[in-house]
Every structure is written in C-alpha cells, then in structure tokens.
Amino acid sequence: MNIGITLMIVGMVTVFAVLLIIIFLSNQLIRIVNRVAPDEEAKSAVKPVKAVGAIAPDVMEAIRLTVAKITEGKGTVAEVKAV
Q: Under 8 Å CB-to-CB from 53, ≥6 apart: which residues?
C-alpha cells in the first residue's frame, strides 16, 4: 500500500513539474516570436479611402441587409459614416 501511494505522489509531482516547464517554455517562445516577428496588422494595414458625399442608397441597403442577416434581425444600422 505504501509503495502505491509513493508511486502516485511521485507521478503527480512529475506531471506537475513537466507542465510547469511546458508553460514556462511556451511563454518564452511567445515573447521571442513577438520581438522577432512584426505584427500582421502593420503589414496589411489598408489606408482608408476618402469618400466624397453620402453613401449610395444601394450600398446602404446592402449594409442594412447584411447586419440584419448576421444578427438574425436583432441588430439595426443606426448610422454609417463615410471615411
């Protein structure tokens, strides 16, 4: 009986230690990758196009229909600003 309990405790401590090592190494890898690799957003940043005037009625209707479909009729479009 004592051998079984000892084996169980050694096994649990071993698994706990291995998991701590994995967590530590994963955090270090994330820090290294964040330093070395640039942000994806910075590469693919799209500059907004300046629009003149109001949004076309057909585009506004497409926006309304899309929002209604995505939100299953619960969401509405209150305002759309052209950038």
A: 82
